[in-house]
Structure formats: structure tokens, C-alpha cells
Amino acid sequence: xxxxxxxxxxxxxxxxxxxxxxxxxxxxxxxxxxxxxxxxxxxxxxxxxxxxxxxxxxxxxxxxxxxxxxxxxxxxxxxxxxxxxxxxxxxxxxxxxxxxxxxxxxxxxxxxxxxxxxx
Length: 119
Prior knowledge:
By secondary structure, this protein is of the alpha/beta class. It has helices at residues 2-9, 25-36, 72-84, 107-117, and strands spanning 15-19, 40-44, 62-66. A three-stranded parallel beta sheet has the order 2-1-3, sandwiched between helices. Helix 1 (2-9) packs parallel to helix 2. The protein is elongated. 20% of the residues are buried.
């Protein structure tokens, strides 16, 4: 879901900032999506890694997203950085459809659990 949302975001920005761990496959994939569209993209752990020089020049619209397991406080910290630096921020909340999935256990597993917990 997040990757589909980033695909839409990339049509509106010229710089992508992904908040997430360098070890996170999901975060790395979000960054790669920007790279593939020739949009300057960075992957940062938090706001302390932002460099003001990234936004000097021709950058007009910055998209901010985060990996699936990133706490919202880290993403909010990035938005706060823009406010503190007095770089105008237009925040467009990205609504991501949450999907609940269920998977049925194989019948043999169900039977084994029933047998185990029957008294």
C-alpha cells in the first residue's frame, strides 16, 4: 500500500525523502522508486540527517514518506525541521488503505490444535 502511495506522490514532487532505517527493505524500496523515476531521493533515519543544501537550487516540491514500521514521531520530526528552517511546508496527509488479511490454517494444523486443547 505504501509503495502504491509513493508511486502517486512521485508524480507531484521533484525530491523524495524517505524516513526509515537503512536496514529496512521496505524503506529502501521506497527510495528506489524515486531513483527509478530520476527524482532525487534520500533515505534518512530522522531529521538530524537532513541537509539544508539539498533544498538550495531547483527543488520545488518535496515528498516525505516513511517505511512501514517507522514511528510517526520521526516523520513529524522531519516536518518540524522544515518549519524550524522556515522552509514552507504544505502538508497533504497521505491516506493509505489498510488491508486486513486472514489466512486459513491447513486442516491438519486445525485438527492438531483442537486435539491438543480438548480436555
